Amino acid sequence: MKLKYLLTILATGASVLAAEAQYAGDALRFSQTQAGSNARFNAIGNAQTAIGGDLSSLGANPAGLGMFTRSDIGFTLEFNNYNSSADFLNRNTIGSKDALNFNQAAAVIHLPALRAKGSDLEKGWVSFDFGIGFNRHADFGANLIYSGTNPNNSIADYFAELATKNYGNPSTLSAGSLERMAYDDYLIGYDDQGDYYFPATDVNSLQTKSDNRRGGQSQVNMAIAANYSNKFYLGLNLGFSSLRYFSDAVFSEKGYNVSESSNYQLSLLQNQETTGKGFNAKLGFIYKPVSALRIGASIETPTWYEITDNYTEVLNTSHTVNGLENTNLPENYTFVYRLRTPLKMSLGTGIFLGNFGFISADLDMVDYASINFRGMTSADLNIIADNNQEVANNFKKAYNYRIGAEIKLEQVMLRGGYGIQGNPYKNLSDSQFNTKTLSAGLGYRVRNYYMDLSYQQISSYSDLKPYVLNNGSEPTASVNTDRNNIFMTFGMRF
User: Fold this and answer.
1) Angle, vertex CA 347, rays to CA 372 and CA 338, nearest 5
2) SS3 state at 23
3) For the chain, domain boundaries
4) What is the signed CA dihedral for 257, 258, 261, 267, rounded to 10 degrees?
């Protein structure tokens, strides 16, 4: 397989990966999921490991299903609003995107244990619960855009460095390669005596990058849980995951070509379509030593994915002199690989205030350095080795923290929560490159029916680079992102 020559930006951080290792950025993106939750658990910041008694326990801590006393069915809709603010070359640019998604649907069947007549119904195996559900636990929708005038360099500098590194004289440039496109478009030239390529463009070019992303990750869960003496709850979950990630990116540059004595305009188009399917399992327990305290824990195995990545790139350039316009044929690359995401361990506690509500707190541990790639054929060994090395060089163990609360006012519940998803990067600031979640919501119960509404804001920061240069002088976009999500759940117990 021919390697992709463009850079891929890590999903939420500042590092830029070289082409041979670009899949590591996607692997991180696919590893940073949250437990799929309905409006109730989203409202308490997803601090649910020790809470239970909710349909969201299917995708979170399956032991929570053991706390059901009746069967339950429900579904959740979500509205996603994405906003970004990018500072690039002393210019600020705003991006936004909206989407409506089906977030969750689940059902739990409650079965009391068969007991001998006259036996103590509070001792031994009290009940068993079986659940099945669908949940969406990651949203990739985004509209990134940044633009500014670059006084220091051009993307042609990047093309020249690539050509010098990978090829000899122009006769050796591979047909269809990015370097060949740049040479044929008169963006780079070749020095015969020095045996190197040089940019044919001047500085002070107007550069613009846009990236329209869509897709998400979802999972079908099947779980079983048991209640022992109303003290100990045990649950097991099997999850069947799928992912879809699409990116349509365009980098454009307008400036002056010194070699051709002409103004020019180039467009570099990149399209990525990535799909995958996988499976995982989760084991959890909740212990209730007294009615006011619950302690929970769960361990989620890695998700083992098989992923297909389809990538297309093309470079087109026009010059004002003589109306010269070069239109190249797109180059398509396909790579199929296996991915193992990190194992995740969670601890949680819940303090219950009688009939007035509860306070809950969670801690997760996720070792992103354990992300692992495997190839499908022996021809993939170099690409796989490069990406596994990139993971080892850049990623580390991270901790996620969540806290939430629910207050009951007869049939109405008030909820709030806050969470931090830890920084996965070795050499970047923990305070800057973590992701913060703030949430609030309402719940209403009437007879066997319930409705929940919640608002969630997810804030993150990233440094994005349209290309990289050997001397580190490439431009950087500092991007602040807010995802504003609204969830609405409808359900019935029977």
Assistant:
1) 15
2) helix
3) 8-154+201-493
4) -10
Nearest to 99 by CA among 219, 217, 272, 216: 216
Q: Which fold has domain 8-154+201-493?
A: Porin (2.40.160)
User: CB–CB of 391/374 below 8 Å?
Assistant: no
Exposure pattern of 353-372 as b/e (b: 16+ CB <10 Å)? eeeebbbbbbbbbbebbbbb
Helix (H, G, I), strand (E, B) or coil at 264: strand
pTM of the predicted protein model: 0.88
The Cα-based distances of 406 to 37, 424, 436 in angstroms read 16, 30, 20
Element (H, E) at 178: helix 178-184
**How do the pLDDT tens digits run along the chain, 494 residues long?**
333 333 333 333 333 333 334 788 899 999 998 776 899 999 999 999 999 999 999 999 999 999 999 999 999 999 999 999 999 999 999 999 999 999 999 999 999 998 777 677 778 999 999 999 999 989 999 999 999 999 999 999 999 999 999 999 999 999 989 999 999 999 999 999 999 999 999 999 999 999 999 999 999 999 999 999 999 999 999 999 999 999 999 999 999 999 889 999 999 999 999 999 999 999 999 999 999 999 999 999 999 999 999 999 999 999 987 666 778 888 898 999 999 999 999 999 999 998 899 999 999 999 999 999 999 988 888 889 999 999 999 999 999 999 999 999 989 999 999 999 999 999 888 877 889 999 999 999 999 999 999 999 999 998 999 999 999 999 999 999 999 999 999 999 99
DSSP-assigned letter for residue 201: B
